[in-house]
Amino acid sequence: MLFYSSEHGQVLWNEEIHASLIEWNGFSYGEKFQTILLKGIELLEQKKSEKMLMDVRSGSAINQEDQKWIAHQFVERAYRAGLRHIAIVLPKRAIAKMSLDRTIVGLGELPYELLNFSEINEAVKWLSDLR
Questions:
Q1: What domains does the chain contain, in order, with CATH numbers?
Q2: I want to staple 81 with a disulfide (CB 3.0 to 4.6 A). Which of 25, 36, 45, 92 is the partner?
């Protein structure tokens, strides 16, 4: 079920794994980047789910301001909304992967479980097994 869509990404509900799914399309920053993540949280709340799947295979680098926003806003909001498990499918491009790695390392200890995957089917299986 499509919940939100923009040129930079979309937020869907994946009934099979009972998770909010965020799919990124290229580079996005600032309000457009943050809106996609906030819509993912909103869907998580509406469906009373603890799981999120973030597909970043077509994503791009994350700028420093958005890295700070993730650390200071997204993590706490997502946790308060019920997030307990997040699977991230890593970007294909090396620069985007390094940027994501730097962002995740900068977050320190998270209040929820985060695992990275190179293949989407592995991420889906992990989230499925959490039922």
A1: 2-129 (3.30.750.24)
A2: 45
